[in-house]
């Protein structure tokens, strides 16, 4: 009897032990995911660096044109171009799947140009299938209409005090003179980083190999190189150029800069108050630097 009681107790202990081990196997499985996000050192850096990849998942959205649909039309400025997705800001902001459309090599599709999109009103995840995208005004034509310096977006390839190179959304390798370029960023600007370059001159060449930029003929001059996180900063929004005053009289001034002598004017002579010849200044302007006469709005003496 004692032997049977002992055997029963032993069996119960074994069974209890087996159940206990099964529970402890489940614990690491439940806590494994949070442990990775709390990791320190190189692993933590890897987790942080992988966060931007989330935005690339949007390019996996694919929306095809239905067999039958009514054509819809939308116009606006291209504000985003990633993979097969094009975002256009007009009367609203719309995103289109442009996979399979024919692009015009002479009028490349880039951020900052003005386009017309023909599409089907059959969205998936707020993405509409596009039939065609036509560039109505390139980035320089739009800048001329809006009376400002043109801008171009892309990945920075190289930058020093003399030269800047950029690959834009259309895959063009663009070269800029960096003699007067100023950097606008919250940190160092590195090759491969997405930037917006404001420039004077033209990246569009005519059939003879020249361009239509007047005194800024030849390689365009970069005025500002701005990282994407600094686009809304005050320094990114203001326009100015530094130089030495060659002559000044009333509301007119000639400013000698590192790239050219610029004819300038102000709405009122008080803008030039205290400014003298041979003085180095920072001249804030509105409009475009390539205007025949640059409109000066404020002067800072350096």
Description:
- With 302 residues, the protein is of the alpha+beta class.
- It folds into 3 domains: 59-137, Beta Barrel (OB fold (Dihydrolipoamide Acetyltransferase, E2P)); 146-236, Beta Barrel (OB fold (Dihydrolipoamide Acetyltransferase, E2P)); 240-301, OB fold (Dihydrolipoamide Acetyltransferase, E2P) (Beta Barrel), CATH 2.40.50.
- Helix content is 20%, strand content 37%.
- The protein has helices at residues 2-37, 42-49, 53-56, 139-145, 234-237, and strands at 71-82, 85-89, 93-97, 114-120, 127-137, 151-159, 163-168, 173-177, 182-184, 194-200, 221-227, 240-249, 252-256, 261-266, 280-286, 294-301.
- It has a 6-stranded mixed sheet. A 5-stranded mixed barrel has the order 1-2-3-5-4.
- The longest helix has 36 residues, at 2-37.
- The protein is elongated.
- The model is unreliable at 1-57 and 208-212 (pLDDT under 50).
In short:
The protein has 5 helices and 16 strands. The chain is of the alpha+beta class.
What descriptors fit this protein?
16 strands, 37% strand, OB fold (Dihydrolipoamide Acetyltransferase, E2P), alpha+beta, elongated, six-stranded mixed sheet, 302 residues
Q: Which second-level CATH architecture of the largest domain applies?
A: Beta Barrel
Overall pLDDT confidence:
82
What fraction, in percent, of the residue positions are helical? 10-25%
Q: What is the count of β-strands?
A: 16
Proportion in β-strands: 35-45%
Tertiary shape? elongated
Structural class: alpha+beta
Task: Give the number of domains.
Answer: 3
Provide the low-confidence segments as ranges: 1-57, 208-212
The helix tally amounts to: 5
| CATH fold descriptor of the largest domain | OB fold (Dihydrolipoamide Acetyltransferase, E2P)
């Amino acid at each position: 009897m004692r032997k049977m009681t002992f055997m029963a107790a032993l069996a119960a202990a074994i069974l209890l032990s087996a159940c206990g081990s099964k529970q402890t196997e489940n614990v690491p499985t439940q806590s494994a995911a949070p442990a990775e996000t709390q990791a320190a050192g190189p692993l933590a850096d890897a987790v942080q660096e992988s966060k931007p990849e989330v935005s690339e998942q949007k390019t996996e959205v694919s929306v095809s044109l239905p067999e039958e649909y009514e054509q819809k039309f939308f116009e606006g400025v291209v504000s985003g171009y990633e993979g097969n997705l094009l975002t256009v800001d007009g009367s609203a902001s719309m995103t289109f799947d442009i996979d399979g459309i024919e692009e015009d090599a002479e009028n490349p599709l880039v951020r900052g140009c003005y386009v017309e999109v023909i599409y089907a009103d059959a969205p998936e995840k707020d993405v509409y299938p596009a039939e065609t995208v036509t560039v109505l005004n390139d980035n320089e034509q739009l800048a001329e209409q809006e009376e400002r310096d043109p801008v171009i977006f892309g990945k920075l390839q190289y930058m020093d005090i003399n030269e800047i190179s950029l690959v834009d959304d259309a895959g063009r390798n663009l070269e800029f003179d960096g003699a007067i370029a100023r950097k606008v960023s919250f940190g160092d600007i590195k090759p491969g980083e997405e930037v917006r370059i404001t420039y004077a001159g033209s990246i569009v060449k005519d059939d003879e190999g020249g361009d239509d930029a007047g005194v800024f003929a030849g390689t365009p001059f970069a005025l500002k190189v701005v990282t994407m996180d600094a686009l809304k900063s005050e320094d990114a929004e203001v326009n100015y150029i530094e130089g030495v005053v060659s002559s000044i009289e009333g509301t007119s001034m000639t400013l000698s800069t590192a790239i050219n002598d610029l004819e300038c004017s102000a709405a009122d002579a008080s803008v030039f108050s205290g400014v003298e010849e041979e003085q180095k200044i920072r001249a804030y302007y509105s409009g475009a630097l390539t205007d025949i006469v640059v409109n000066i709005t404020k002067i800072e003496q350096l």
